[in-house]
Amino acid sequence: MSTEVLQQTKETQLTGNKQFYIESYGCAMNFSDSEIIGSIMAEHGYGHTNDEFDADVIFLNTCAIRENAEKTIRDRLKHLRLNKKKNSDLIIGVLGCMAERLKTKLLEEEKLVDVVVGPDAYRDLPKLVAEVEEGNRAINVLLSREETYAEISPMRLNTNGVSAFISIMRGCDNMCSFCVVPFTRGRERSRDPESIVAEAKTLSEAGYKEVTLLGQNVDSYLWFGGGPKVEFKNADDSTKANAVTFAKLLEMVAKVDPNMRVRFSTSHPKDICDDVLYTMCKYDNICKYIHLPAQSGNTRVLEIMNRTYTREWYLDKVKRIREIIPECGISCDIIAGFCSETEEEHQDTLSLMQQSRFDFSYMYKYSERPGTLAAKKMEDDVPEEVKSRRLTEIIQLQNELSLQNNSAYIGKTVRVLADSLSKKSDQDLSGRNDQNIKVVFPKGEHKIGDYVDVLIERVTVTTLIGKAIN
Ligand code: SF4
Question: Domain tally for the chain?
Answer without folding.
Answer: 2
